[in-house]
């Protein structure tokens, strides 16, 4: 069991190392959209400060959404997903590994780079710790939920925008509590309750999403 | 249990049983809707603050309540479809989605119409309206996913998984949106909550809710019947049915 | 081979009805596959050979009715898709496969040698030719310990000598008490007895 998980994780990371542009793309996307907001709102630092928590969180959400579509795409196209489905072990374990690898390659770098974006958007320094913590927990939930959408649509030739339609409604609670946490911190209040709620969502998602992902993958492999 | 499920899984049986239920369910729905509408719109007393504009509640609240319940009906069908692999459950799921989406849309529309005289604007990011909007997109997602699959059986299973994910998420979404609204809105603008509603308004409202449940059930059965015919169109029993109907028609004409 | 008559079937299909895209491909199809058998599924294009194999493998779990009982604890399925990650080297690809199937890594070099990929073990697969990539996928046959093999057109893009070697592996697997079901447009170049099962095209009445 451990061998399977280690092998899957190792393979996903190896693939990312061989094609690093797939890891960098969401980050560049994040940066680009962060640049768009001041252009749209205006350079007034007070206004930017006000919008920064929401902007940072929405952009992080969109960047994850963009990346999540490819979570199983390559494996489906070349047929290695079939081999995984036929493995004697239950499918939800490798599914969880794929999500974890995906989070390591998108959510975690986004979180680590977020202070830079926060400074560009004039987010008060005292909120940066909360921003990182909320993104750390929140992007993991986003990857897990996104994995369900990716698993359900990977067998479709015209997946594309469909996955956004399926997943964005489920992202609503994460966005609400994630951006609220940063807003609270920026206003000088404790964001602990919001972070705890995000932690709760993460626990629930870790417990349930792998099963939905496994079910989705089986259906998609069937369709292929 | 098993034989019953087997029967339930057979299209001709479901088609005919749905037909006999509809024979009395449709009249009941029409009567309930008519009585509820007349009672609510004409006889219930006007609200002391909102005047007559509150009466749109008799459409808005039942539509919203049944739209939400419809999602759970759909998810139940999804669970049955995944566990017992019943094709008829797929048909129920497929039929629930557009009806639920329409009810949600009606809830949103009536909410907007109600918002104009109450708040002076067509759209307010009120907790209930926002949750309804998310629910609407959940329904749209199910329909879009179903339509994206070439294979209808797999489409049903994929939608079943998605609807089950939705059932876990809906309470979280509703609670989050409630919390978000309470965070951003002062309590004074809060909606007139149903808790203090007078019996003279509550009774027609409850009647309308029951009427909308009946409306949902009869639309669902009608939709399922047409779905069954569409999917089974190449089978013998449907051919026989159509020929029998045609025979009846020509006999009547004579 | 001689024990076949008494042994439990590895795979038992009873009254299978297979439907794909609203079309009935097979109806009331029954089949038993015993250890020691090599079975060739025959039928014209679109007769449902691939669908049947995918159903037997458990990849297609919907769109059929009837009984399907698999007594093999693991199986090997070789389909139309490459089954190879082009960013990874042949060795990495097979190492992952071994981990997924919980197989020992010891036979890896021998397997790569058997499909004549010695010297190419550590070159990313996208630098290999189509035939070589195909052979990376076929190397799984040399690693597998599964008693049941389901092979969909295993000889595609393989030269004559390669086909002969593949036929030998298939025969060896059956002789060792396994069973192999395959589809192919060419006869198996082997002396091993092959059971032919024809899938007649059936139209819905």
Describe the structure.
Chain C: Pfam families: ABC_tran. Chain C: Keywords: ATP-binding, Cytochrome c-type biogenesis, Membrane, Nucleotide-binding, Translocase, Transport. The complex is a heterotrimer of chains A (224), B (254) and C (205). With 224 residues, chain A is mainly alpha-helical. Helices cover 83% and strands 0% of the residues of chain A. Chain A is elongated, with a radius of gyration of 18 Å. Chain B has one domain. Chain B is mainly alpha-helical and 254 residues long. Chain C has 205 residues and is an alpha/beta fold. Chain C has two domains: 132 residues, P-loop containing nucleotide triphosphate hydrolases (Rossmann fold, 3-Layer(aba) Sandwich), CATH 3.40.50.300; 66 residues, no CATH class. Helices cover 28% and strands 25% of the residues of chain C. In chain C, the strands form two sheets. A five-stranded parallel β-sheet of chain C has the order 5-6-7-3-8, with helices on both faces. Chain C has a three-stranded antiparallel β-sheet with strand order 2-1-4, with helices on one face. In chain C, a hairpin with a 2-residue loop joins strand 1 and strand 2. The longest helix of chain C is centred in the last third of the chain and has 16 residues. The chains are: A mainly alpha (224), B mainly alpha (254), C alpha/beta (205). Chains in contact: A-B, A-C, B-C. Chains A and C meet through helix 1, helix 4, helix 5 and helix 10 of A and helix 2 of C.
Spatial extent as radius of gyration of chain C: 17 Å
Q: Please work out how many helical segments of chain C DSSP would assign.
A: 5
Average pLDDT for all residues of chain C: 85
- Helix/sheet category of chain C: alpha/beta
Tally of individual domains of chain C:
2
Helicity level of chain B: over 70%
User: How far apart lie the N and C ends of chain C?
Assistant: 40 Å
CATH topology of the largest domain in chain C: Rossmann fold
CATH superfamily (homologous) name of the largest domain in chain C: P-loop containing nucleotide triphosphate hydrolases
Q: How far is the first residue's CA from the last residue's CA of chain B?
A: 46 Å
Care to count the β-strands of chain C?
A: 8
State the strand order across the main sheet of chain C. 5-6-7-3-8
Mean pLDDT of chain B: 86
Strand content of chain B: under 5%
- Helix share of residues of chain C? 25-40%
Task: Enumerate how many helices of chain B there are, as a single number.
Answer: 8
């Amino acid at each position: 069991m451990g061998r399977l998980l280690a092998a899957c994780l190792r393979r996903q990371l190896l693939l990312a190392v061989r094609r690093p542009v797939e890891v960098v793309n969401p980050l560049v996307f994040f940066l680009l959209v962060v640049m768009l907001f001041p252009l749209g709102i205006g350079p007034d630092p007070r206004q930017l400060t006000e919008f920064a928590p929401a902007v940072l969180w929405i952009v992080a959400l969109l960047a994850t959404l963009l990346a999540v579509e490819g979570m199983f795409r390559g494996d489906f196209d070349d047929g290695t997903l079939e081999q995984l489905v036929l493995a004697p072990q239950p499918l939800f374990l490798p599914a969880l590994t794929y999500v974890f690898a995906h989070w390591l390659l998108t959510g975690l770098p986004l979180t680590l780079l977020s202070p830079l974006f926060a400074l560009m958007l004039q987010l008060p320094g005292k909120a940066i710790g909360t921003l990182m913590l909320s993104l750390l927990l929140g992007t993991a939930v986003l990857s897990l939920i996104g994995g369900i959408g990716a698993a359900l649509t990977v067998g479709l030739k015209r997946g594309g925008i469909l996955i956004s339609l399926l997943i964005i409604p489920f992202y609503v609670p994460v966005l609400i509590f994630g951006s609220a946490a940063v807003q609270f911190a920026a206003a000088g209040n404790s964001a602990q309750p919001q972070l705890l709620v995000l932690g709760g969502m993460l626990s629930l998602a870790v417990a349930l999403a792998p099963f939905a992902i496994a079910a989705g993958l089986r259906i998609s492999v069937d369709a292929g | 249990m098993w034989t019953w499920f087997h029967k339930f899984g057979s299209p001709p049986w479901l088609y005919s049983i749905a037909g006999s239920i509809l024979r009395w369910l449709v009249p009941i729905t029409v009567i309930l809707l008519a009585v509820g509408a007349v009672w609510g719109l004409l006889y219930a007393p006007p609200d002391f603050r909102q005047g007559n504009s509150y009466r749109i509640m008799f459409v808005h609240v039942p539509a919203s309540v049944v739209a939400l319940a419809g999602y759970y009906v759909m998810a139940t069908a999804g669970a049955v479809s995944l566990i017992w692999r019943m094709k008829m459950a797929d048909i129920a799921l497929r039929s629930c989605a557009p009806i639920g989406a329409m009810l949600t849309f009606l809830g949103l529309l009536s909410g907007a119409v109600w918002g104009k005289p109450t708040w002076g604007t067509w759209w307010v990011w009120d907790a209930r309206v926002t949750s309804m909007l998310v629910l609407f997109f959940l329904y749209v997602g199910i329909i879009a996913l179903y339509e994206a699959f070439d294979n209808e059986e797999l489409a049903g299973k994929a939608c079943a998984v998605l609807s089950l994910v939705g059932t876990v998420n809906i309470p979280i979404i509703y609670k989050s949106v409630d919390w978000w609204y309470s965070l951003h809105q002062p309590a004074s603008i809060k909606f007139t909550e149903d808790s203090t509603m007078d019996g003279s308004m509550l009774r027609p409202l409850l009647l309308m809710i029951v009427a909308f449940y009946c409306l949902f059930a009869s639309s669902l059965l009608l939709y399922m019947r047409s779905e069954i015919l569409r999917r089974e169109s190449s089978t013998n029993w449907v051919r026989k049915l159509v020929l029998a109907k045609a025979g009846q028609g020509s006999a009547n004409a004579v | 081979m001689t024990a076949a008559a008494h042994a439990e079937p590895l795979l038992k299909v009873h009254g299978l009805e297979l439907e794909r895209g609203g079309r009935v491909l097979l109806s009331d199809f029954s089949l038993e596959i015993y250890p020691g058998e090599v079975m060739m599924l025959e039928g014209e294009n679109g007769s449902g050979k691939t669908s049947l194999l995918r159903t037997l493998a458990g990849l297609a779990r919907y769109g059929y009715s009837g009984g399907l009982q698999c007594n093999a604890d693991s199986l090997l399925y070789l389909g139309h898709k490459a089954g190879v990650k082009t960013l990874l080297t042949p060795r990495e690809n097979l190492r992952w496969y071994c981990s997924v199937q919980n197989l020992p890594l010891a036979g890896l070099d021998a397997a790569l040698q058997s499909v004549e990929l010695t010297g190419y073990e550590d070159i990313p697969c996208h630098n290999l030719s189509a035939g070589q990539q195909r052979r990376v996928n076929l190397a799984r046959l040399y690693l597998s310990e599964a008693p049941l093999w389901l092979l969909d057109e295993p000889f595609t893009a393989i030269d004559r000598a390669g086909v002969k070697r593949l036929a030998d592996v298939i025969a060896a697997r059956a002789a060792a008490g396994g069973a192999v079901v395959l589809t192919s447009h060419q006869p198996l170049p082997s002396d091993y007895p092959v059971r032919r099962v024809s899938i007649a095209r059936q139209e819905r009445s």
